[in-house]
Amino acid sequence: MATLREPVPTFAGTPPFPKAAAAALADRQLRENLRRATTTIRDKRARAVAERDDWEALRLAGAAIKDEVLARLPELLVKLEERVTAAGGAVHWARDAAEANAIVAGIVKDTGATEVVKVKSMATQEIGLNEALAREGIAAWETDLAELIVQLGQDLPSHFLVPAIHRNRSEIRDIFRRRMAAAGRPAPDGLTDEPRALAEAARLHLREKFLRARVAISGANFAIAETGTVIVVESEGNGRMCLTLPETLITVMGIEKLLPRWQDLEVFLQLLPRSSTAERMNPYTSMWTGVTSDDGPQAFHLVLLDNGRSDTLSDPTGRQALRCIKCSACLNVCPVYERTGGAAYGSPYAGPIGAILVPQLRGIARHPVDEQTASLPYASSLCGACFEVCPVRIDIPEVLVHLRGQVVRQRGWRQRTLSQEALLMRSLGLALGEPRRLAAAERLAGLAAGTVARDGWIGRLPLPGLLGAWFRGRDLRAPARMSFRRWWARQRRGTT
Amino acid sequence: MRVALFVTCFNDLLFPEVGRAVVTLLRRLGHEVDFPAGQTCCGQLHFNAGYRDQALSLVRRFTRVFAGFDAVVTPSASCAAMVRTHHALLVREAGDGALEAAVGEVAPRVRELSELLVDDLGLTDVGARFPHPVAFHPTCHSIRLLGIGDRPRRLLEAVDGLTLVDLPGADECCGFGGTFAVKNAGTSVAMGTDKVAAVRASGAAVLTSADTSCLMHLGGLLSRAHAPVRVMHLAEILASR
Ligand code: SF4
User: Fold this and answer.
1) Residues of A in contact with B12 (CB under 8 A)
2) Distance between CA atoms of A118 and A262, rounded to whole angstroms?
3) Which residue's alpha carbon is at the smallest distance from atom 6 of ligand 1?
4) How far is B108 from chain A (nearest CA, A)?
5) pTM of the model
6) Torsions phi, psi of A110, nearest 5?
7) CB-CB contact of B207 with B199 (8 Å)
8) A324-381 per-position pLDDT tens digit
9) How high is the ipTM of this complex?
10) What is the domain partition of chain A in residue ranges?
11) CATH code for residues A17-309
12) List of domains in chain B
């Protein structure tokens, strides 16, 4: 059987955001692909949402239902377990990525299979399941078109919904031509970069795998506690294939994906498609409850994944990130993501939601985090475009600022006292703490600026660190010779 | 009506002419403003950068200095937003009941300049004349945090001789973002460069907004590129005649 032999790239070792972003910013092709793709989806979403005059009510309902889930999580999870078990499924609880991977690998091995087909899933990317399975000698084939492109291209996904958003079609044709043969059915001779031809090549390549696979692995968009039903929404039908053809189905689901009642789907099946693909309804909605004899998979395993979610839940401000339904609307409107792409975030959760979710999943509420993680809450200009589009009203800027507070509090002694940023913030704080000190500082700044400024602006200054960073692409406004407060005092005394 | 001017630390030092323009404009409209000398900063920089303790002491000072005024006018949408949306949050977190009550009194009285003019004084035509093509940058905090909508635009449209040019992608962030501008300088400059390209293509001679922070970033890019576009705060245009 064919396997991709070279090591699969991972996010491990991604440098802190500013440095990771620099590589993306320098890549003109990438920036052009991203700009084109994000602006197209952005405009389509805006039109799809504008069709509904009750959109705000839907958002409020979505947020309220998810908050209810978070408040009742233990009880609802137990209920879900009961229902799934009663319907013939098996439920497994995984504290972290390692546990979840071991559970899944164990189930696959018990079936004797050496390969699985996969429905696109954020949770399995989060835990690095494909790599874990590869270590056990099990090949995991992605079947979503974009995921297939990423997998064949030995690339990293850079968007929830369009993981290959950073690739254009001629790049995709090249990847298919070069790599399909190593993974199974080769690309047809003379493959062009016509979207139809590319889709047909993928279809032929994948069909072989669907028909052969005995085990499928999926994520879940929702799971209904009162009925034990699991739901996957998708656009290509590859999910439907995976969810119905193999004998064994394993679903890995974050514990926050629950909904209390069947009826709650009414809200989310409106919010999700319009927010993510700008469709009124997504093409395929698959729902299943345990196993049905002689129809579909005869063994169903549901792996409930914590992996930092309980820690996230412990933070009253930060926990709203768990309302996320991974629609990717916030990525598409984000001016930072548009320029840096997803890889700069160093995890499958890119963009604004990644910047608030990942530090929390990595335990920032409990202990200091590494430098890359700590850089994520700063990867935003706080423009608020994400909050505006989020279908479950996650106030992402609020959480970003909240997490920055945690980063600052958790810094070690050196960084807290001696770093340039800390010194700047302290001296600014000192000056601003007392008007007389501020006036004196302004006086000094004005005098100093007078020696270097031209037409009110200061050109390049070779300063170190944060100060120098300003001058890299911009001039600086020169501090005025006479501050406003001095002018005011003078005109008050009649001496202007 | 007793109106105080909160000029903001940023304008005080870097754009004092904006404060002077507010004073000139309001005097022309028949309103005298006070400038409480104890004022410094709303705490936005520290708050947004994660230095909450320092932000809190600046909130304390702000609330003390501006207590007792009917309105506090400020030529900065993001500082107005900081006071109105975040001061209460910060003091609640600190668990200081007396301060919370004081913030509850003072913060809602803070008005960004266009709100004071349009809502409180009922004006859109302030008698200004400015015969130049102008591009208007709405700023994220104006539209998304403060929600001042089209007030600045209405004021600009009523200015004699002024041509408001179309700015494509106007709602998109310019990339300033406070410490973001230096901590993520590369991305910030990339965003600003796109904005500046749109401004230059618009044919405007002047770029204006309700916030000098965005204007410093964009002005710095324009200055570095020797572009023939000046940045001016809304107040300066409204004070011109
Ligand atoms: S945070 Fe909101 S907008 Fe972003 S992916 Fe999640 S649900 Fe969608």
Assistant:
1) 438, 442, 483-485
2) 26
3) A324
4) 20
5) 0.94
6) -60, -30
7) yes
8) 999 999 999 999 999 999 989 999 999 999 999 999 999 999 999 999 999 999 999 9
9) 0.96
10) 17-309, 436-493
11) 3.40.50.10420
12) 3-120 (no CATH), 133-238 (3.40.50)
